[in-house]
Predict the structure.
Amino acid sequence: MFMHFDHAEIEEGPMGHMVEDRHLRRALLKAVAADPAITMLNDTRVTDQTVEPTGITLTLDGVKTLRARLAVGADGRGSGTAERAGIKRIAWSYGQTALVCVVDHEKPHHGIAHQFFMPPGPLAILPLTGNRSLIVWSEASANAAAINALPDAQYLDVLRPRFGSFLGELSLTGPRYSYPLGLSLAHSMTAPRVALLGDAAHGVHPIAGQGLNAGLRDVAALAEVIADAVRRGEDPGNDAVLARYQEWRRFDNASLALATDSFNRLFSNDNALLRLARDMGMAAINALPGLRRTFIREAAGLTGDLPRLMRGKPL
Ligand SMILES: Cc1cc2nc3c(=O)[nH]c(=O)nc-3n(C[C@H](O)[C@H](O)[C@H](O)COP(=O)(O)OP(=O)(O)OC[C@H]3O[C@@H](n4cnc5c(N)ncnc54)[C@H](O)[C@@H]3O)c2cc1C
């Protein structure tokens, strides 16, 4: 069963853009370095935090301290900020590992992304510049470790039958990576004087390629809530301000966690009943342009209450 989402079905332009992490990081670091209000502390780790009624003190590498009215924990799935603030999390492993690499291929991809759903997990082929694509290939973890241990030529031999021949001959370019996959959802996005964002609040399965996008929406929402609070003369770290941020983002993030978890369970298996259910679901989406457009707009991040920064407006 095939399902095709075409951005021409919506008016807002491409469904998404593929941006290589290395370019994104370089651009973000450059922007941060150019902002005199931000001090970059490289190779420094937050080791402790103490909440007081009017602020929070962070300890860096067990020695230096920083004090502020609000600490934002953007420290990923194993967030120490969340742990120190006593925020619990729901977490489980999918027993899958994503193998990630870039391939060169003979034929052009025409800017089309593909995702093949196979019992051990999805295989995503995502267009990059030139005749190159990023592969995010999920396998059961034990099998992924065995594949990852293979030399490049044999690794490609395992990939080829899964990938198919529609882009011609394949070759590997650059290093290969692997990421164990799991869900990690914080019970709360806030605690006194603390806000969590990105994977620190919600680490999800990459099946929909939405993790970083959701994190960027958190950033934009928190920035807007803080900017509005400061304009009104409020303390940006007080409970009422943090509650506004949590109210804005929590439902979206919990829904994303639930949707990615359900998609992965529905698609990464060979159960005949589930196969029938997903074939019927896909047939319905194919037959109903309105429903298909809803999916495209959702994946493109065009739905919901978008923060000003996400709409290209100033804070
Ligand atoms: C295989 C794969 C494919 C993906 N594809 C997509 C995609 O196509 N689109 C998409 O939107 N998302 C995708 N994602 C998800 C995306 O990668 C994550 O959502 C995103 O990287 C999370 O960013 P983050 O900054 O919140 O957390 P992280 O990237 O985990 O960064 C956390 C940072 O905090 C730092 N840190 C941790 N503890 C401390 C401490 N004590 N002191 C100081 N610093 C600390 C860490 O060093 C790290 O730099 C994918 C994920 C995977 C695994």
